[in-house]
Amino acid sequence: MTTHNKFKITVPATSANIGPGFDVLGMAFSLYLTLDCERLPAGSGLQMTYEGEGAKDVPLVAEKNLITKTALYVLSTYGITSLPPLKIHVTNPIPLGRGLGSSGSAVVAGVVLANAAGNLQMTNDRMLDYCLMVERHPDNVAPALFGGFVASFLRELEPEELDPPSIPRSEPTRNGAPQPPTPITDIGHYIQLGWTKEIKAIAVIPDFEVATEDARAVLPDMYQRADIIYNLQRIAVLTTALSRTPVNADLIHKAMSDKVHQPYRKHLIPGMAEMLEKITPKTYPGVVGICLSGAGPTILVLATENFEQIAAAVQDIFTSQPKGGIKSMYKVLDVVEEGAKTEYFD
C-alpha cells in the first residue's frame, strides 16, 4: 500500500432544498473547501492552520474542529485512536451559517481526510454512510461528495437497526454528545440528475446567519395534502426541465415554487417574500428560477445571463429593509460535475 507524503482534499460548497425539493435536491458549486496535507515524522502530532471564512472563531484543536473531529470518529471505527502526524492547512471560502453547505462540506472533508490519512480505501458510497452519521441530510453531503445536481433520500431502517440506534435522529452531533457508532451500510441513496451548463447560480449572501435548528423549528409537524401534491408535481417537472436545452425559463420558474418550507421561513429572511415575487424571468431577463438556499439566509437565483444586474436587484431588496437595511455580497457559481476529490503528491 503506497503512502504519499503530501495530498490535497477539495470539497465543493453546496445548496440544498432546491425549490420544491425540500430535503431532496442539492447541487455542488464551483466554490471549494481545500485541505493541503503533509505527513510529519512520527511523534510530531497535528499542526493545523486555517484561513478564510470564520478564521477568528474556528477551533484548531483536533477534538473540536468539525473536519478533524469527523476524521477522528471515522478512524476510531477502524481501531485507529488518533490522526497520524499531519500538517493541515485549511482554506475555506464558504460562508458559515449562510445556507451554502459549509458544515456538510466540512463533514465530507473530514471523512475524506480519514480515508486518505488512514489509507482506509473506502468507496464513495461507504464514505456517504459515514457522512450521514454526522450530517443527517443527504441533500447537502451527497452533492458535496459526488458533485452535480443530485436527488437523494434516506432509506427506512429496520427495527433491529434502530436498537441500538445506528444513525443519528437529529441535527449534527454537538459538543459533549456521544459519538455515533460504526454506520450500517446503504443509509443514503442518490442519483445525479442532468443539468444544462447554460444555467449558473447566483448566490446572494446577506450579512447575518440563520441556524439550521432555528429554520427547522418553524416548520410544521403536519402538512396539508394539497401542499404536498403541489410540491410533488413541481419537483417532477423541475428535475427534467433543468437538464434541457434550450432553457425554458418560464417553466422552470413556475416549477421552483414551494409550499413546504419557504412560506414558513420567510419571516427569518427580511425581504425574501418580495424577492420571490419580483425576481422573475419577465422582470429580469436571464432569470430562470429563485429560491432559498438550504435553510437560508442566502438567496439562490438560477440564471443564464445578466448575472450582475440580477444580483444587484436582490441586493437592493436587502438594502431597502427597515433599520438601515442588510448588507450582502454575491457570487456567480457554476454547478460542477465533480465532487470531493483527493490528489496525492510524492
Automatic annotation (TrEMBL):
On whether RNA-binding is a keyword of this UniProt record, the answer is: no
Enzymatic class = transferase
Coiled coil location:
none
User: Could you state one GO biological process linked to this protein?
Assistant: threonine biosynthetic process
Does the keyword field hold Nucleotide-binding?
A: yes
Classify the source by domain of life.
Eukaryota
EC annotation from Swiss-Prot or TrEMBL: 2.7.1.39
Instruction: Give one GO molecular function term.
Output: ATP binding
| Domain GHMP kinase C-terminal, residue spans | 250-316
- Residue stretches making up the GHMP kinase N-terminal domain: 65-148
Give the catalytic activity. L-homoserine + ATP = O-phospho-L-homoserine + ADP + H(+)
- InterPro entries hit by this protein: GHMP_kinase_C_dom, GHMP_kinase_C_sf, GHMP_kinase_N_dom, GHMP_knse_ATP-bd_CS, Homoserine_kinase, Ribosomal_Su5_D2-typ_SF, Ribsml_uS5_D2-typ_fold_subgr
Which keywords annotate this record?
Amino-acid biosynthesis, ATP-binding, Kinase, Nucleotide-binding, Threonine biosynthesis, Transferase
Sequence segments annotated as region (Disordered)? 161-183
Question: What pathway is this protein a component of?
Answer: Amino-acid biosynthesis; L-threonine biosynthesis; L-threonine from L-aspartate: step 4/5
Q: Which family does it belong to?
A: Belongs to the GHMP kinase family. Homoserine kinase subfamily.
**Protein name in the entry:** Homoserine kinase
What is the species of this protein?
Linnemannia schmuckeri
